[in-house]
Amino acid sequence: MERRTSKDADQDTATTEHGESELCGAKEEILLAIRCLNSRPDWMGSDGKGWLPEALDLAPLRCPILLERAHRVGPRRDAGDPPRTLIMKFQSYKQKMLVMKAAKEKKDVRLYNDLATEVHRQRKKYDNVRQQLRSLGLRHGIMPPAKLVVTYREQTHTFNMPTEAQEFINKIKEERGGNND
């Protein structure tokens, strides 16, 4: 999970004000992790110098991408199975953001912020509600850390608990049932 202090923010500003490269600022104290879901088995190593820029088609960088560590999650799989999830912990917030931006543009690599287990549990509680929202055709999403946001009739509704969202869905179903939509 990302944690930034005011000291880190000041360091980012100072780096930008002095015109240094957006990737080559002084080593920051923030250490951030991302999760790569569909990585190839050969994408592994303690540094991202070689395979990470190549996998994301990044332009040549002035400074190499530095990872504190990288490892795979879960048991080894057979050769035909999809590769295991790869967790990468960056030394630089700026480099992490550059990699995340490049991954958005490239469709075959999926990167996500690595969230704490408790946040995953909180978000998982909304699964049933989200399935109902999909079946109703309503636009929705999860805001960090675990708030459900629903857009209905051009109004945005935010829910902190799945029960609140379920009550809202029930009202919509009653309303649509009464209008024969």
Automatic annotation (TrEMBL):
Residues 1-21 are annotated as: Disordered. It comes from the Eukaryota. InterPro entries: L1_C, Transposase_22. PANTHER family: L1 TRANSPOSABLE ELEMENT-RELATED (PTHR11505). This is LINE-1 type transposase domain-containing protein 1.
